[in-house]
């Protein structure tokens, strides 16, 4: 996706166009659109929560 396409996607998203609709209009996958709208000044926001340590004591009691 070009920078101009990214700017257009961000603009349309700010105007209220849904990620699914942007996907249909541009032909790009919804995950790609989501990634683009979550970008902030060159720093991408994680799409999922951060990893955390597994508490083995909690697992062994299940």
TrEMBL record:
Among Gene3D superfamilies, the record links this protein to: Homeodomain-like (1.10.10.60)
Q: What protein name applies here?
A: Transposase
Per the UniProt record, the source organism is Alicyclobacillus cycloheptanicus
């Amino acid at each position: 996706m070009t920078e101009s396409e990214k700017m257009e996607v961000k603009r349309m998203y700010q105007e209220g166009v849904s990620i699914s609709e942007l996907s249909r209009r541009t032909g790009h996958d919804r995950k790609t659109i989501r990634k683009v709208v979550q970008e902030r000044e060159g720093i991408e926001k994680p799409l999922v929560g951060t990893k955390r340590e597994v508490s083995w004591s909690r697992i062994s009691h299940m």
